[in-house]
Amino acid sequence: MRQIILATGNAHKAQEFQGLFAGTELEICAASVCGGMPDVEETGKTFVANAKLKAMALRELAPKDAWVLADDSGLSVDFLRGGPGVYSARYAGCDATDADNVEKLLWVMRGVPMAQRAARFRCALCLIDEVGELRVFEGHCEGHILEAPRGDAGFGYDPVFQPLGYSESFGELGEEVKSRLSHRAKAIEALQSWLPV
């Protein structure tokens, strides 16, 4: 079984990845198997650039025969010209909670009509194999921003994001549905279709 070490210290994200890879011939491990995820300054201007920074940082600590997988993902809102984008996790400040970020987003978009609330979640995955070869896989999920949070499933902006074709938010749909629709699920699907396993 091939071991892939996930370059994140985010417990929610690690759980989500393990679920998305369930049933495959892959062992998805948290960065704790390498002593934890090193601090990485996410200076990239794109999700791809930041995913590469995180993957390369963990590759330095990982066992030589392991693969490393990093993601960078976030919310892109048309009304905000693509923002919060790479700043999604720290939109309301460096120590912001999910609730802080959602509150700021809704405040900034107060009064914006539904026709102008189009948004998408984006995900970039960076995979580095045992010989250092790097590959990128991307996915996105279209939808729009609700005027108030709905549901308590998921994390981040899930309660205010309504995917196209659904009347519920990600916070209401739950992990089973989200795991089929999400930006991360689509990026992982692209990765899995490539994997030589």
Question: What order do the helices and strands come in, and which of them pair?
Answer:
Elements: E1 2-6, H1 11-20, E2 26-30, H2 47-59, E3 67-77, H3 98-108, E4 118-128, E5 134-145, E6 161-163, H4 170-181, H5 183-194
Parallel strand pairs: 1-2, 1-3
Antiparallel strand pairs: 3-4, 4-5, 5-6
Helix pairs in contact: 4-5
Key features?
5 helices, 197 residues, 6 strands, six-stranded mixed beta sheet, alpha/beta, Maf protein, 29% helix
pLDDT < 50 stretches: none
- What's the overall geometry? globular
- The oligomeric state is single chain
Question: In the CATH scheme, what's the topology name?
Answer: Maf protein
Give the total of beta strands.
6
- C-alpha end-to-end distance: 9 Å
The first-level CATH class is given as Alpha Beta
Q: What's the CATH architecture name?
A: Alpha-Beta Complex
Mean pLDDT: 92
Question: Which band does the percent of strand residues land in?
Answer: 15-25%
Structure overview:
With 197 residues, the protein is of the alpha/beta class. The chain has one domain: Maf protein, CATH 3.90.950. It has helices at residues 11-20, 47-59, 98-108, 170-181, 183-194; strands spanning 2-6, 26-30, 67-77, 118-128, 134-145, 161-163. A hairpin with a 5-residue loop joins strand 4 and strand 5 (134-145). Helix 4 runs parallel beside helix 5 (183-194). The longest helix has 13 residues, at 47-59. The protein is globular. The mean pLDDT is 92.
